[in-house]
Amino acid sequence: MTQPNAVHDQRVGVWFVGARGSVATTATLGALAMAAGLAPRTGLVSELPEVAVAGLPSLEGLVTGGHDILETPLAHRAQVLADSGVFPPSLVTTLADELAAADSRIRIAPRLGTQRENARAVEQDIRDFRAANDLDRVVVVDVSNTEPPVTPRPELDSLAALEEALDAGHAPLPTSSLYAYAAFRAGCPLVSFTPSPGATLGALTELAKEQALPWAGRDGKTGETLVKSALAPMFGTRALKVRSWASYNMLGGGDGQTLSDPRAALSKTTTKGAGLDAILGYHVDGPMHIDYVEDLGDWKTAWDNISFEGFLGTRMTMQFTWQGCDSALAAPLVIDLVRLAARAHERGENGVVGALAFFFKDPLGGIDHTLADQWRTLAQWCENLGASA
């Protein structure tokens, strides 16, 4: 599909936090395959006319890199995913040279003495990536492991207090927030694709404003919550009373293993459950469970049971099962968000971009959780971006 008003000559860097993880690997290979004409652009919201009208950077201009704590070559990681059915094995073979080049742009995450030193090292790696690859801009994308919620602390509320704490050698920031800090210091937009704290801390939202940078988050809406945000409005607009909405999730892979830790799972269940009450306008009893099943690998299954009340108090139920490949659902959204964040940066957007709520479970900067309304907001924002070109 040809994009109207596309900025074809821009080179946009994608700096992944968790660059050898399943989502980043799938996004990297997918971008390479689509740019080479080896794969269709199915799943890319940014290719739909209502979004492409914004004048987005082309896929051909994307250059990936990033940090990880693992040294496993990207091609090996891609082969494991291909063997499990995430994408055709032939793509890994055909794009072997391109994957090797992408792998050469991945660095081991710095582990220095203090958070100040680590933040400076991350910032410098991002700046070096931008310079070495002659990039117009870099978008930092956090697809790393989910972190527990943050305990409120005074030094996280204001930028001045945070800077003082870092200068004193303290370590107040969770890893996701340290990367958000480094990204903003490097002059880069940020996409928080996980439910980790990231840039939500007061000090970092202040820094983004100070640096006049857009950012988006949080927790990509890829599966069960996507269905909820489309289905829940049906009950509301038909005046049906939802009594309970129970959700049971099974997933494997690194994300599932991380979420087997109850502290990390709390971040995920909080964002997954945030929208239902907001959509319906009243509290719904909604127990939610996430279990790690190693055998599922990169695949996930969600089973939902909805109890609702109709005319004359008649009790009824609805059930649905969602089965999907986590990385194949998430990767195109990551590419969409990179293109949109880059365009927002080019047009001078500042702070959290509420119009990108369509992509997230916990839509920061927006109050509407209804998928159709979020879509209309996104389409209008893209039209305005295109008109201002």
TrEMBL record:
A Pfam family this chain is assigned to: Inos-1-P_synth
UniProt xrefs under InterPro entries: Myo-inos-1-P_Synthase (IPR002587), Myo-inos-1-P_Synthase_GAPDH (IPR013021), NAD(P)-bd_dom_sf (IPR036291)
Domain of life: Bacteria
GO biological process: inositol biosynthetic process; phospholipid biosynthetic process
Residue ranges of every copy of the Myo-inositol-1-phosphate synthase GAPDH-like domain listed in the record: 223-327
Any one GO molecular function term: inositol-3-phosphate synthase activity
PANTHER family: MYO-INOSITOL-1 PHOSPHATE SYNTHASE
Family: Belongs to the myo-inositol 1-phosphate synthase family.
Name this protein carries in UniProt: Myo-inositol-1-phosphate synthase
